[in-house]
Design brief:
Elements lengths: L9 E6 L3 H12 L3 E7 L3 H11 L2 E3 L2 H6 L5 E4 L6 H10 L3 E4 L7 H13 L4 E3 L7 H12 L5 E9 L20 H17 L3 E9 L10 E8 L4 E7 L27 H6 L4 H10 L20 E5 L2 E6 L2 E6 L3 E5 L8 H13 L7 H20 L3 E2 L8
Parallel strand pairs: 1-2, 1-4, 2-3, 4-5, 5-6, 7-10
Antiparallel strand pairs: 7-11, 8-9, 8-15, 9-10, 11-12, 12-13, 13-14
Helix pairs in contact: 4-5, 5-11, 6-7, 7-11
The structure holds nicotinamide-adenine-dinucleotide (NAD).
InterPro entries: Gfo/Idh/MocA-like_OxRdtase_N, Gfo/Idh/MocA_Oxidoreductases, GFO_IDH_MocA-like_dom, NAD(P)-bd_dom_sf
Keywords: Oxidoreductase, Plasmid
GO molecular function: nucleotide binding; oxidoreductase activity
Amino acid sequence: MTSEPAQMPVRLGVVGLGRGFMLMIPTFTADPRVKLVAAAAPRAESRAAFEAEFGGRTYDDIVPLCADPEVEAVYIATPHQMHADHVCTALAAGKHVLVDKPIAISMADADRMVAAAEASSKHLIVGPSHSFDPPVEAAARLIESGEVGSLRMIQAFNYTDFLYRPRRPEELRTEEGGGILFSQAIHQIDVVRRLAGGLATRVTAMTGAWDPARPTEGAFSALIAFANGSFASLTYSGYAHFDSDVWMDNVGELGQRKDPAAYGKARRALQGLDAEAEAALKQTRTYGSGAGLIEAENNEHFGPVIALCDRADLRLTPAGLDVFGDIERRFVEVPFGPAPRGPVIDALVGAVREDRAPAQTGAWGRASLEICHAILESAASGQPVDLQRQCGIT
Ligand SMILES: NC(=O)c1ccc[n+]([C@@H]2O[C@H](COP(=O)([O-])OP(=O)(O)OC[C@H]3O[C@@H](n4cnc5c(N)ncnc54)[C@H](O)[C@@H]3O)[C@@H](O)[C@H]2O)c1
């Protein structure tokens, strides 16, 4: 337990001032329980922007940031392949860590990170992922309460233009963590594990890599069995022409209102660009490049999710839970705000100030990563894959 008074804001250092960090800014700035005091980033323009906006100190490397005594906890938002080294560096320096999803690319790296967290007296949290979304949490609690009977089956579905958003080259190479598995499936896996209690046992899956110009997995379907007897079917397409947000009241993943006039925007923006120009386009959306923030008005979501229980079907929406019971239907409102991702700050503050681990620990993140690999393995072999590294809710 820390000696800091419980009401003091958690003093956070950020590593990686890119797109992931930008998506967290509204949450950080809206929540007085956290204060951004330092950042490490290689791009001078992002460091200058951070100093101007937050008044903190900046470094060009993680090591001096972790030696900064003011920093209590570190948010790591660097590319996937750097997570393992950055997390281990921060834990070794005695900092609590929030690492953006996925925990890592390889299971060996995830093992190393979980071991480093266990060997330290600090917490490792993997997030944000959409398992933190308030409607997911509300559904998980309703299921856990027993009020709607046993959970039997979950359907999670998402059609997006993910594969056509501007990318760094490695984001289109599966072995380097590219494609939809490590960046998108991981959200869906986290959501269904949160609802089903976490302990998956077996995965059967097929994947699609159908665009030779973007030669990585862009779609998958998977069937996941859980230790409690329930099962989940997950379908994701990053090739979408259809946008499943129309089934989410036209609210986007980040809680923003979707503009129907933006149809086809992602593919249009990529037309005629080579890899270098595409990476440059991604840079224009990053921190310090003048890009605007997403304005959320609703809870975040990750596509339509329906949880079938013995006495009710639960449909998760950005506004809450549509509960279809035996003889009546009701709506459980889940309020938004003041910014999205408040539960990520709850988790961070709980860990740093109260020594309380959230559901999404390092072991949790490793278990979700195991399912990403199992999906790839099952798709390649045509066989079900038994899981070995699952964990329940702590
Ligand atoms: N949870 C979400 O909604 C969400 C959304 C986007 C990205 N992310 C995650 O954020 C992570 C980064 O992805 P991104 O899209 O922001 O990529 P990005 O390329 O926009 O940002 C990565 C940043 O890391 C910086 N960086 C590179 N090497 C570094 C180093 N050694 N030390 C410090 N900074 C370094 C880069 O300069 C860049 O600004 C990924 O793991 C991704 O999964 C999460």
